[in-house]
Amino acid sequence: MGSNQPLGTGGDLRRRFLRHHLPLALASAVVLVLFMSLPPFDASAYPHADLFSATFPRERVRGGPMDHGEDQAGSMDHGGGHTGPMAHGSGQAGSGGHGGDMGSRSFNQRLSVATGYVALGLLGLTLLIGPANLLLRRRNPVSNYLSRDVGTWAAVGSVVHVIFGLQVHGGGRISDFLRYFVAPDGSPLTNSFGLGNWTGLAATVIVVGLLALSSDFALRKLKARPWKRLQRLNYTLFALVIAHAFFYGALLRMTSPYTLLLGLSVIAVFVGQAVGVWLWRRRYARAAATVV
Questions:
Q1: Where would I find the beta strands (DSSP E) of the chain?
Q2: Which residues pair with 182 in a beta bridge?
Q3: How far apart are the first and last CA of the chain?
Q4: What residues make up the domain containing 93?
Q5: Per the domain annotation, does 269 fall within a domain?
Q6: Which helix (H) or strand (E) holds 265?
Q7: pLDDT digits (tens, 9 = 90+) for 227-248
C-alpha cells in the first residue's frame, strides 16, 4: 500500500485477513487471557456495587443486608470485573453441585467482563481511524475496510459478552432473561441494574445492525450517503457502552485497571474526534479558499 493511501482502503480479502483479521484475533485473544489471569483484574480486590436499591450505582457495604432483588439476581460490576458469588451462597460453595455452579457463575462473570472490555477497546479504535487519516493528511474514504474489520471483532466481543453475561443469573429460560429488564410486577427495571441492561440491549441491537451493514453488498444496495449515515450510529453505540459500564458501577472502582481502560478510551475518542473535526474544518476552509 502506498504511503499516501488512506488507512484501511485495501479491499483484497487475503490482505485483509493477514493484515487485519489475523492480528486483531491474536491481539484480542492475548488481551483476553491477560484479563482473565492477572491478579489486578480480579474483582474481589475492588469494592462491590449495590445496583439494585437505586437508579445510580452505590458502593455496597460488606456484611450489610442484601437487597431482595440482589439476593435473587446477584451483583454484576463492570469497573473491576463482575463481583464474586452471591453472599448468601458463598458458605455453601464447597458442597457438591452447588460449588460447581458457583464456580461456573464466577467464570461466566469474569469472561463476560473481559470480553466486554476487549470489545470496548476495539470500538474505541474504530472511532480513531478516521482522525488518524486526517492527521496523516490522507483522505477519509466512505468505506474504510480497517474500521469495518476492527468493528467486526468489536461486535464479536460484544456478542460473547452478552451471551456469558446472560448465563450469570439464569439457565437459559425466558424468565431468567426477562428479570434483567423487568421487575416481578411487570414494570421495566429502572434501578441501576435495569438501566445497565437496557443500555446494554440497545448497544447490542446497534452493534449487530452495524455488523450486518459492514459489507460491500450493503454499501451497493444502500448507496454511499445513507450507508455512511447509518455507520455513524457507531458514536451512539460508544455512548451507550459507556452508560452501560457506568450503571454497572464502573466509577466506584477508580483503582481498577478496567476503570482506567474505560477512562482512557473515553479520553482518546474525545480527543481524537475533536482533532479530527478541527483538521476536517481546516481542510474544508482551505479547499473553499482555493476555489474562490
A1: 49-50, 58-59
A2: 188
A3: 34
A4: 13-291
A5: yes
A6: helix 257-291
A7: 999 999 999 999 999 999 999 9
pLDDT digits (tens, 9 = 90+) for 19-39: 999 999 999 999 999 999 999
The DSSP secondary-structure symbol of 18 reads I
Q: Return all residues near 227 (Cβ < 8 A) that are at least 6 apart.
A: 142, 143, 213, 218, 219
Instruction: Tell me, yes or no, whether 235 lies in a domain.
Output: yes
Cell triple for 19: 493484515
**Which residue has 438501566 as its cell numbers?**
195
- Cell numbers describing residue 59: 458502593
C-alpha cell at 145: 475496510
Within-domain flag for 263? yes
Inside any domain, residue 85: yes
**Type of residue numbered 200:** G
What is the total count of domains within the chain? 1
- HEC string of 172-197 equals CCHHHHHCCCECCCCCECCCHHHHHH
Under 8 Å between Cβ of 188 and 182: yes
- The predicted-structure confidence for 216-228, as pLDDT tens digits, reads as follows 899 999 999 999 9
